[in-house]
C-alpha cells in the first residue's frame, strides 16, 4: 500500500487519533487527583478570605493549617438544625467528611424544591457551613451561597460576624460572568464594600440589598456598573440564602444557642 494513497492517509490519521485519545485519557486520569486537590485548596482559601483570615503570602500549608481550626458542620436547611450522624446515615450520607452538596443537588433523595431562588428550582437539603470559634467563643460563620447571574451560576461564600447580623466578607470561587462587567463580583474593590454591612435585623429580617448604582447606608451595597442582571442576581440569591428557605432557620438556632451560653 502506497503511503501517499488515500487509504494510507486515512490509516495514519486514524492511528494518530487513537494515540492522541489514549494520551489525553491517561493525562486526564493522572491529573485528576491534582485537580481535585487544587479545587479543595481553592475553596478553603475562599472560606478564609471571606472570614478575613487569609493573609497575603499564605501558602498551601498555611491555608490548610488555618482551615483545620474552623469547625465544619452539615446543616439541615429545612429545620435549621446541625444534622447528627444518625440523621445523615438515614438520609444515605454514610461519609459526612466527604459529603458533596454539588452531588446532592443531583440526587432526588438529597435535594429539595425551593421557590425563592430565581432560575433554580432545587437546592441541596443538607448544606456545609463553617463555624469560626476560639475557646468555645463564636467569632463568625461562613455560609456557602450560589445563584444565577447573566451567563452563569455563581458560587461563593458569605461570612457573618459573631453577632450573626453583620457581614465580614464575601468571595466568589466560580463564576462565568462578563469580564469587566458582571465578572467584577471577584474584584477586591467591590468585595471590600461588604465588611460591616448589616445583613439581618435582630429578629431575623433580611436587610441587605445590592442596588443599581451607588448604595447608601449600612444596608446597601453598590451594584456592578453595566451589569444590571448580575447585580440583581447577587441581590436575589444573597437575600435568599439569608432568608427562611436558606440559612435563616440555622442562624436563629445558632443565635439561640449563643444567647443560652451567654
What's this model, at a glance?
This protein has helices at 6-50, 60-67, 85-90, 101-104, 188-191, 228-242, 248-261; strands at residues 71-76, 111-113, 122-124, 126-134, 137-148, 153-161, 167-174, 209-211, 220-222. The chain has 262 residues and is α+β, with helices and mostly antiparallel strands.
Features:
single chain, 262 residues, alpha+beta, two-stranded antiparallel ribbon, globular
Structure description:
The protein is globular. The strands form three sheets. It has a five-stranded antiparallel β-sheet. It has one domain. It contains seven helices and nine strands; from the N terminus they run ααβααββββββαββαα. β2 and β3 (122-124) form a beta hairpin. α1 (6-50) packs across α2 (60-67). With 262 residues, it is α+β, with helices and mostly antiparallel strands. The protein has helices spanning 6-50, 60-67, 85-90, 101-104, 188-191, 228-242, 248-261; strands spanning 71-76, 111-113, 122-124, 126-134, 137-148, 153-161, 167-174, 209-211, 220-222. The modification FMN phosphoryl threonine is found at residue 228. It catalyses: a ubiquinone + n Na(+)(in) + NADH + H(+) = a ubiquinol + n Na(+)(out) + NAD(+). Its EC number is 7.2.1.1. Its cofactor is FMN. This is Na(+)-translocating NADH-quinone reductase subunit C.
Amino acid at each position: 500500500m502506497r503511503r501517499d494513497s488515500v487509504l494510507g492517509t486515512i490509516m495514519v490519521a486514524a492511528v494518530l487519533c487513537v494515540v492522541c485519545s489514549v494520551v489525553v485519557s491517561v493525562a486526564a486520569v493522572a491529573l485528576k487527583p491534582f485537580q481535585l486537590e487544587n479545587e479543595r485548596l481553592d475553596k478553603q482559601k475562599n472560606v478564609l478570605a471571606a472570614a478575613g483570615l487569609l493573609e497575603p503570602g499564605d501558602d498551601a500549608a498555611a491555608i490548610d493549617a488555618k482551615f483545620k481550626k474552623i469547625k465544619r458542620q452539615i446543616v439541615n436547611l429545612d429545620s435549621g438544625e446541625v444534622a447528627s450522624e444518625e440523621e445523615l446515615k438515614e438520609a444515605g450520607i454514610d461519609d459526612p467528611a466527604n459529603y458533596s452538596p454539588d452531588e446532592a443537588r443531583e440526587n432526588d433523595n438529597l435535594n429539595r424544591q425551593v421557590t425563592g431562588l430565581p432560575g433554580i428550582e432545587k437546592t441541596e437539603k443538607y448544606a456545609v457551613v463553617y463555624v469560626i470559634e476560639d475557646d468555645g467563643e463564636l467569632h463568625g460563620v461562613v455560609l456557602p451561597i450560589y445563584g444565577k447571574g447573566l451567563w452563569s451560576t455563581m458560587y461563593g461564600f458569605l461570612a457573618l460576624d459573631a453577632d450573626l447580623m453583620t457581614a465580614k466578607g464575601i468571595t466568589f470561587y466560580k463564576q462565568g460572568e462578563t469580564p469587566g462587567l458582571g465578572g467584577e463580583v471577584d474584584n477586591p474593590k467591590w468585595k471590600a464594600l461588604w465588611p460591616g454591612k448589616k445583613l439581618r435585623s435582630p429578629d431575623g429580617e433580611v436587610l441587605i440589598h445590592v442596588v443599581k448604582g451607588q448604595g447608601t447606608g449600612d444596608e446597601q451595597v453598590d451594584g456592578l456598573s453595566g451589569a444590571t442582571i448580575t447585580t440583581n442576581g447577587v441581590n436575589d440569591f444573597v437575600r435568599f440564602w439569608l432568608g427562611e428557605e436558606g440559612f435563616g432557620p440555622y442562624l436563629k438556632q445558632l443565635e439561640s444557642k449563643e444567647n443560652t451560653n451567654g
